[in-house]
Amino acid sequence: MQTKKQITLIGAGLAGSLLAIFLARRGFQVTVYERQPDMRHHEIPAGRSINLALAQRGIRPLKEAGVFEQVSRLLIPMRGRMLHDEHGHTTLTPYGRRPTEVIHSISRPGLNRLLMDAAEAAGARFLFQQRCIDMDFENSKLTFSDQAGEQYSIKARTVIATDGGGSALRQAMVQRLGVKVVEDILPHGYKELTIPAATGGRHRMEREALHIWPRGGYMLIALPNLDGSFTVTLFLPMEGDASFAALDTPAAVLAFFEKNFADALKLLPVLASEFFAHPTGLMGTVHCQRWHVKGGVLLLGDAAHAIVPFHGQGMNCAFEDCLILDQCLDKHGDDWERLFSEFEIQRRPDTEAIAEMALENYVEMRDSVRDPRFQLQKKLGFLLEEHHPGLFVPRYSMVMFHHLPYSEVRRRGAIQQAILDRLTLSAVRVEDVDLKLADELIASQLGGVRIGA
Ligand SMILES: Cc1cc2nc3c(=O)[nH]c(=O)nc-3n(C[C@H](O)[C@H](O)[C@H](O)COP(=O)(O)OP(=O)(O)OC[C@H]3O[C@@H](n4cnc5c(N)ncnc54)[C@H](O)[C@@H]3O)c2cc1C
Fold first, then answer.
1. What average pLDDT is seen over the chain?
2. What is the pLDDT of residue 2?
3. Mutate which of 74, 163, 320 for ligand 1 pocket (most atoms within 8 A of beta carbon)
4. Ligand 1 neighbourhood includes 365 CB (under 6 angstroms)
5. Looking at the domain that runs over 6-44+108-183+284-361, which CATH code has it been given?
6. Would you list the domain boundaries of the chain?
7. In this model, does residue 1 exceed pLDDT 60?
């Protein structure tokens, strides 16, 4: 019997663990090296992106990997954005038109553990506290540092780097092969805080919503957890008047929250201590000139194309990467050179598109959502979708509830935005909009091509 090929994955995060399932199920001998201790037996450091929004793009790969039924037990549907204004008034803006058009809050460690278990059950092997520090691409030699800080090397002919935004493999490609990388770090950082559960494990705010406190230059958001708590994230400039640098004492933090997020402050009993105990995270977009080295190494997920988190798509996109790589395996077998190259050709335009849309969504979340014209266009978008199903689909819906490639979403989204701008030039209410003109514009500009779910 022919022995199946060995594949080495670096990083047992979300992408690495899901990819391990896909590859192990095909019979490859998969070994995953992870720098952290096994999170199934160790505490995760507080304040590191505890929950995430899972959308359709991420759900499909989980279904294909045969794990969605288990994952579904971890989900809380979020039906829309609950906007909290400066006076504590709240308004729910639905994400979609149909009851099924929701996104889901999920615990990162909960999901990651489940994926690791499933990968092990499929035959993958995980080695923890093994930090990859370098690769000699000529000789297919990977170097690690183990738990005791001892260095050792292994021979690995097929390596897939799923080691996240700060990828060691990507750095080795830069240093040893001169690959060009631009890491666009946002001048805004983030800090995670907690709204604890009320007695009996009840949620202290609407459970099935993503809460947002948009304040122009910055914002607070909160996603629900199964235990009744919310994970709250403050997004704020690093420097300047309203900034992390300015919030340097407990009194300054409390005054800032009192002024900007008074209703949230009442629900954050240990704000000041959490604020100084939890790290301030950085966010950025990674543009890497090349994702693969012949048939030997491929970057995937955040390692190849980290994006800012404002569209809630980094994990969803990384999961889509795993499915597309699996589909490339169907097409090209394990001709890795061809496969890695095809993967990059197919995926790059889409990851560039979502990187751009994620940056745009930061402005939408922290600022535009408060603008009456934006709200009018949102309403109108839903109405046009009702009149032209599958033809006019709001861009947010195309990203979150459909599987259309991101680059196509961006292209159609730009046409639709121009239509919305034209239709709302002098309109104040949806009733003021010339719907006959809307029909004409949609028919002539969206080319009659309908998109499926
Ligand atoms: C604040 C915030 C909120 C977010 N919210 C969302 C959201 O709502 N929805 C969404 O879809 N995405 C979201 N994201 C993005 C999402 O977290 C990432 O896109 C996703 O985790 C990428 O998965 P990955 O496996 O590529 O990388 P990671 O999940 O970062 O996994 C990388 C793994 O590699 C390991 N590793 C790193 N270096 C080495 C090394 N040298 N050797 C061995 N192992 C190594 C790490 O320990 C880790 O386990 C958010 C991100 C942030 C920062």
1. 95
2. 44
3. 163
4. no
5. 3.50.50.60
6. 6-44+108-183+284-361, 371-445
7. no
